[in-house]
């Protein structure tokens, strides 16, 4: 799986999807640029989300709030005081780690040992294997499971109490070693705020300390009343937005999974207090359906309900995706009560209430939030799409099986040879189709090689113009995934492509 992940990263670079930022200066850690194909894929994912959330819901509207906000926003939201990670340094390697992540990874390793034992036993016993019974009776598994449970309980406790010394003690007790130096020589645990600071104003005395927003949600909360009034929105209604967010992440490995500058797609749904349970269920189901509609495989998603809730939340779940490095959070769905609006009322001194005509009463709405990282979604789609296939003639082909609706280029138009007027016909097709789709023209190399190139690039269709085309106005259309080829009329191309790439 580590190999698969390496392939994903190098394919993303080789085919113009994702580059390291400022690469000629050796890059900037955990910051990435989307290249010519990546920018298209990212835009298509964003559009797919926007269409499902805003266009398809009569009661959801979209906004585009600024990255810079009044600094009091972050006091009200709790980010100034509570947006901290517990960090610990290894004295020998001088490397810094998130204390909670060190403990989680230690626990994960024990889990992997259990999984290994189970796989081994399943192989040995064949059909007679009963996993439940094995888990309940095998000494090794029982011992390890007990260890995992103990670690989870202790971790939850120190997290809840924000007990920094407790964190360090847990790491020492478990004998966790530094992945780089292998030593157990740890410093104390410190807290570190994840927000990037900046300044507004030129002169030193009058400059105002600002933060780059660490989430897009607050831009929605502070505009709640503006949007409700000008849009004459009636509860329940939602406000959606996509945009950049910034976090000074310490553990920023795993490519575009955890970045310092990233993009979120968030929606806050304002509801009547007391209805949050129904809406929580509704949005869990609706969001999972959205994911499944892309066809990445239903087995690759699972819910992870939070036992330990943030102080403002009364229910929370993650939609986890099976990334090349395992199941990890892709999207969060949170029932946030009236925490955010109440906080902003308190700090701004302005009422953020809704007058319900049916009830003839004012109230502060409750909020249900769906929040997904666009870059994480990109990684989910991209890593899931990349496959190597064994073909019948014992060769392999690399295919990027992107959902057609998301693919950067929908069709490549290929003249079989570079002469006899075939390029002219092919270019004419490009001119016709480009009003509706991103298409590309390619005349270099043998047609088989061009097919492979488009396969690796994720292009769903190849359209080949040959000598017969000059006689019958037909072309060969080849499907990326099935490699099936069909003879079709040029005039039917638009409809054929549309049928697959439109949602
Ligand atoms: P994690 O626990 O993985 O750090 P989080 O719980 O802090 O994530 P939220 O604050 O709930 O994440 O943010 C909502 C979504 O934004 C996440 O589900 C994720 O998809 C995305 N996201 C958060 N932090 C990052 C990041 N550093 N890089 C890329 N995407 C991110």
From TrEMBL:
GO cellular component: cytoplasm; extracellular exosome; microvesicle
Gene Ontology molecular function terms on file: ATP binding; bis(5'-nucleosyl)-tetraphosphatase (asymmetrical) activity; glycine-tRNA ligase activity
Catalytic activity: tRNA(Gly) + glycine + ATP = glycyl-tRNA(Gly) + AMP + diphosphate
GO annotation terms (biological process): diadenosine tetraphosphate biosynthetic process; glycyl-tRNA aminoacylation
Keywords: Aminoacyl-tRNA synthetase, ATP-binding, Cytoplasm, Ligase, Nucleotide-binding, Protein biosynthesis
Signal sequence, start to end: none
Binding site for ATP: 247-249, 257-262, 329-330, 373-376
Residue ranges constituting the Aminoacyl-transfer RNA synthetases class-II family profile domain according to the UniProt record: 195-415
Source organism, top-level taxon: Bacteria
Enzyme Commission number(s): 6.1.1.14
Family: Belongs to the class-II aminoacyl-tRNA synthetase family.
Quaternary structure, from the entry: Homodimer.
Entry protein name: Glycine--tRNA ligase
Species per Swiss-Prot/TrEMBL record: Winogradskyella endarachnes
Gene name tied to this protein: glyQS
């Amino acid at each position: 799986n580590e190999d698969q992940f390496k392939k994903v990263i190098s394919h993303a670079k080789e085919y113009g999807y994702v580059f390291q930022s400022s690469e000629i200066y050796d890059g900037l850690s955990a910051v990435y640029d989307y290249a010519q194909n990546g920018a298209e894929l990212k835009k298509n994912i964003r559009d797919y989300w926007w269409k499902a959330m805003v266009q398809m819901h009569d009661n959801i509207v979209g906004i585009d709030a600024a990255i810079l906000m009044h600094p009091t926003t972050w006091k009200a939201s709790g980010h100034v005081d509570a947006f901290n990670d517990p960090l610990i340094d290894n004295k020998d390697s001088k490397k810094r780690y998130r204390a909670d992540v060190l403990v989680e990874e230690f626990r994960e390793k024990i889990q992997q040992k259990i999984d290994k034992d189970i796989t081994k036993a399943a192989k040995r016993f064949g059909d007679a294997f009963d996993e439940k019974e094995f888990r309940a009776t095998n000494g090794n598994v029982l011992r390890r499971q007990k260890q995992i449970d103990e670690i989870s309980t202790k971790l939850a406790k120190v997290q809840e109490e924000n007990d920094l010394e407790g964190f360090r003690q847990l790491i020492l007790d478990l004998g966790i070693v530094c992945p780089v130096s292998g030593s157990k020589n740890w410093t104390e645990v410190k807290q570190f705020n994840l927000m990037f600071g900046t300044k507004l104003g030129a002169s030193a005395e009058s400059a105002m300390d600002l933060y780059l927003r660490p989430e897009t949600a607050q831009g929605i909360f502070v505009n709640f009343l503006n949007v409700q009034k000008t849009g004459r929105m009636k509860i329940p209604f939602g406000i959606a937005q996509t945009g950049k967010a910034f976090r000074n992440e310490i553990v920023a490995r795993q490519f575009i999974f955890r970045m310092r500058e990233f993009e979120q797609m968030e929606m806050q749904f304002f509801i009547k207090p007391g209805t949050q349970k129904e809406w929580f269920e509704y949005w869990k189901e609706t969001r999972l359906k959205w994911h499944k509609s892309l066809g990445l495989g239903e087995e690759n998603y699972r819910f992870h309900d939070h036992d330990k809730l943030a102080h403002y939340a009364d229910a929370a779940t993650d939609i986890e995706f099976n990334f090349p490095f395992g199941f990890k959070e892709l999207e969060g769905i949170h029932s946030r009560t009236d925490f955010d609006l109440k906080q902003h009322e308190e700090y701004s001194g302005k009422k953020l209430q809704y007058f319900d005509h049916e009830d003839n009463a004012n109230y502060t709405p409750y909020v249900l939030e769906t929040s997904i990282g666009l870059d994480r979604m990109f990684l989910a789609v991209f890593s899931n799409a990349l496959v190597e296939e064994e073909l019948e003639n014992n060769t392999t082909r690399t295919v990027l099986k992107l959902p057609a609706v998301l693919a950067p280029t929908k069709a490549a138009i290929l003249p079989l040879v570079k002469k006899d007027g075939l390029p002219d016909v092919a270019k004419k097709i490009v001119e016709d189709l480009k009003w509706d789709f991103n298409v590309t023209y390619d005349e270099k190399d043998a047609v088989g090689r061009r097919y492979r190139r488009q396969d690796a690039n994720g292009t769903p269709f190849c359209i080949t113009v040959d000598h017969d085309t000059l006689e019958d106005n037909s072309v060969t259309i080849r499907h990326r995934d099935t490699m099936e080829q069909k003879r079709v009329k040029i005039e039917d191309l638009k409809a054929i492509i549309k049928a697959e790439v439109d949602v």
